[in-house]
Amino acid sequence: MVGVHVYQPVASYLGYEKPGGFRFEVPVEGVVRLADVLAACERCDVDVSKLISGGYGASCMVAVNRALSTQGLQTEVRDGDEVSVFGLVSGG
Amino acid sequence: MSEAQIRGGYMGKLLRVNLSTGEAVDEPLDMEKAKLYLGGSAMGGRILLEEVPAEVGAYDEGNRLMFLAGPFSGTAVPGSGTYTVVTKGPLTNQAATAQANGWFGARIKAAGYDGIIVQGISPKWVYLVINEGVVEIRDAGDVMGMDTQETQAHLTEALGLPKASVACIGPAGEKMVRFANISSDYAHFASTNGIGAVMGSKRLKAIVAHGTAKVPVYDDVRFKEAAKAWQKGCQETIMGSTVSAVGTGGFLSPAAVTGWLPVKNYTTTVFDEHPQYNGDALRASTGSTRTPCHACPLHHSTRLEVLTEPYKGLVTDEPEYEGLAGFGANIGVTNVNETLKLCDVNDRMGMDLKECTFVISLVMELYEAGVLTKDDTDGLELTWGNTEAVLALLPKIAHREGFGDLLAEGVYRTAQKIGPEALKRAIYIREGIAPHVHDVRGMWGYLMGQVVSNFGSIEGFSPSDMLPEADIGLETPPERFTDPLGLADAQSKRARKYAFVDAAGTCFFTTVALPGMVEALNALTGLDLTDGDILEGGWRHITTLKLFNIRHGFKREQDTASPRILEANPDGPNVGISVAKDLASMVERYYMNMGWDAEGRPTQGTIDSLGIAV
Q: Chain A within 8 Å of B480 (Cβ-Cβ)?
């Protein structure tokens, strides 16, 4: 399983308004791109595939096991990984 | 550089106030200088270089305290209420530039000016009123001792100018706390490097700005189109959309998860309470009302009402990320209502929260370690998370009472006075100033941007190590820990772009790609600048401040970080990682990219190519 936690405000972009965002798990085999995981996520309550259709979703930032990735949704993940999807990880 | 003449964007004059003599005179704005430096921190840096010689100290009569708008200030582009305060700051004894958003920058223009230059020292406490181009210096007796919020409310009411903006100091500025800040439009603070202490040294309590003058626009139709596109575009960036939806408080959970959140003075990176602090939860758990800045569609500034105990009924401005981190995790406070109360008191006292949180977290760590005892702290039990003790300590710092007088000198000087046990734990950079409220051990580019800063804060406040910015050639950000020179290269590009934002009079939250901003600037001013001209202008801006700092004692060895920052992360996702072996090479790479020598001195070729007359 890969655990994916989508934080606000990305969750709102997907139609989920509650504070804290939402988390779901997806079974994967081998090493796969996060975008492919989201595209195949048919059982999720929220249509997370919208993230891969460009625009705002394409800009969001991704951490795997709390380590930030520079690859965004193209980041590779594998079984056991815990993925965080943020709007912006920033100073300020 | 454009050969065209400036035909819009400026009111055409600066107000110069000499508080020693009580004179206030209008000076024509030098339009050739405006073409080179635009305004804001760049124009201020140029004036500092020309008017403040090395022997003038931060608190001397000869220091200048400038409140500068930019060409965009007061126009229809988003975030155009911004202004910049520029002076020689008392923490670094070098240049200080600090931006604040809100409305004050627009009000300076509406009152008829592009900026205000204050010099001299008043024989008694005064405030300045600039109303429709008429200037008065008034006795400040009735507002002395008032906090920042009371001062603003009192002056606008007493003057019958409800739509005026007030920039003022609180008790900390009056007592010249070395990290006092300047508050304007209630929720906004120009904070870095003790600019409020400089204002206090001049015995200037406040400036009230009001007027109805319009900023001249060169090509109205074209500018409206450009401003409209910018208004739309800034809502679609990852920065704009995030701060609009959840405020900068929305950076808190990402920081906690990725190990960037400062926790208990960098002794850990673990803060399990982050979900209640993150912007989305904070706004959901309080009553919130948006208080937008001038011409900004993001509406990220928000007024909160605390709905639960403790502090039920407190109405305060939503802290930015740094307040939530600084008066939460960094001092071990885990209840967000307590953090809101601490931020409110700090803001009312008028203190820069970066310096304030890191000096408090330092003495808390020393107290926990037994280096300090109640005998040292005026009886305060400075254990992690003791909100009541910090609530008692904040006014003592602001009024320089007892133990608070020691802390009022800032992190580095406090640590020097306590001794080696403090110096090895203190969080500071550049031998004298606290960094932004992050655990910068996990964000090397951001750290280096502060270490080399000539602004007193960060060299061109850029949003993130991790943000792609294709308009400046950063399609993919460098890897965080394996490409330190790539991070230095990226920061030298970002610095040029965000130095322009500082100069132009707009807000970095509303920043869009360069072509859109340059089109707006050209339509406003009648210039025909290119993206390249703008980036060169940012480079000129930074190099001018560097020349000022060299004249005022800058040495290469200052461009580093304190021992604690150079330590490896103790836990979390960045455990064991340290920037210690890479920081010097990053700094030197940055110097090289800026056309400076290995000691950080601009070469004559760089000075000549940028047209900086010294």
A: yes
